[in-house]
Amino acid sequence: MRILICGRAQGSPLFHSSFVNFLCCTHGCCRVCACTKPPNIAGESSVYATYLKKKKMNSEANARRIAMVESCFGSSGQPLALPGRVLVGEGVLTKMCRKRAKSRQFFLFNDILVYGNIVIGKKKYNKQHIIPLEEVQLQGLEDNAQYQNGWLIRTTTKSFAVYAATSTEKQEWMAHINKCIDDLLRKSGKKPVVNHAAVWVPDNEAQICMHCKKTQFTMLVRRHHCRNCGAVVCGPCSSKKFLLAHQSSKPVRVCLDCYDSLSNAKTEQRKNTVVAPNSATNSAPNAKSNNNTQDSSAEDDSDDDEEQKETHDEPKFYGDADKNDEK
């Protein structure tokens, strides 16, 4: 027996053939497709029209939200509207900066994570930072007496800790970010990034050099951060540079311990493979001049921005229709 099944039976609710063709055996054991009743074309068209209307409304609402984010950053920010880009959620998180913890406005898109300094709450932001989600990895942090509800945001060029107001908000943020990352990697076919930048130890957690254990930091003796391990070190203990390809195209400051271990690893690699000229450079002669330069990866952590005193608002995730009404 051979039966040609209709479009509805094949799982296509928007298509129905006008009739069912079948050849039946002589024993009468064949069964006709269950969809022999005339299809409700008008009803299906109505459902599909409602779906298209809702999809259009969601697209327009998403475009308005992205335009609002762009206007809040003004000329200091980059254009964010791209085909297929969706604003998933937004809210305020406490970011652990180089000198102290500060409030930052975060925007989660389906392909990037954007954050900036709060100038006027919900109206104006500056110092926009854009992080591709393809290179992001999250890691939860244990609560302590000073900070709770935190997690690490690791990227290839910079890694840092953020803290939510409640444990529920932490779970929501991490779940939405991880889902966006998983969806993005699945669609692109790429694998998660393995190498991430070290998380910097905050300045106030190191009163002396973490390498030599002797140099005490003062107004004149400033702190430096090793780009490989994140430790706070003095100038002499971070006088050398090494090329960390996943962080920068130029050699960056590293502590003496990391310089030795990285150099040894590169030497071992050279024994088996042919590589480019040694990327490690000794910058000891220029250490004095380097001590006067600002750390590039901490440019958004200056203490000259005023903290905004405002009541806490829960983050908004636009996929959660029951929790967040469109405004």
Per-chain topology:
Layout: E1 2-3, E2 22-23, H1 41-73, E3 87-96, E4 101-109, E5 112-120, E6 124-132, E7 137-140, E8 150-154, E9 160-163, H2 167-188, E10 224-225, E11 232-233, E12 240-242, E13 252-254, H3 256-272, E14 281-282, H4 287-290, E15 316-317
Antiparallel strand pairs: 1-2, 3-4, 3-9, 3-15, 4-5, 5-6, 7-8, 8-9, 10-11, 12-13, 12-14
Number of beta-strand segments: 15
- Percent helix, as a range, is 10-25%
The overall pLDDT, averaged over residues, is 79
State Rg: 28 Å
**H/E order of the elements?**
EEHEEEEEEEHEEEEHEHE
Largest sheet: 8 strands, antiparallel
Alpha-beta content class: alpha+beta
Number of helices: 4
Low-confidence stretches: 1-36, 279-300, 321-327
Task: Give the distance, in angstroms, between the N- and C-terminal Cα atoms.
Answer: 59 Å
Task: Assign an overall shape.
Answer: elongated
| β-strand amount | 15-25%
Keywords for this entry:
three-stranded antiparallel sheet, disordered C terminus, eight-stranded antiparallel sheet, disordered N terminus, 21% strand, 23% helix, 327 residues, alpha+beta, single chain
Brief write-up:
This protein has about 325 residues and is α+β, with helices and mostly antiparallel strands.
Task: Please characterize this protein's 3D structure.
By secondary structure, the chain is of the alpha+beta class. The chain is 23% helix and 21% strand. The protein has helices spanning 41-73, 167-188, 256-272, 287-290, and strands at residues 2-3, 22-23, 87-96, 101-109, 112-120, 124-132, 137-140, 150-154, 160-163, 224-225, 232-233, 240-242, 252-254, 281-282, 316-317. The strands form 4 sheets. Strands 3, 4, 5, 6, 7, 8, 9 and 15 form an 8-stranded antiparallel beta sheet that branches. A 3-stranded antiparallel beta sheet has the order 13-12-14. Strands 1-2 form a two-stranded antiparallel ribbon. The longest helix is centred in the first third of the chain and has 33 residues, at 41-73. It is elongated. The protein starts with a strand and ends in a 10-residue tail after the last strand.
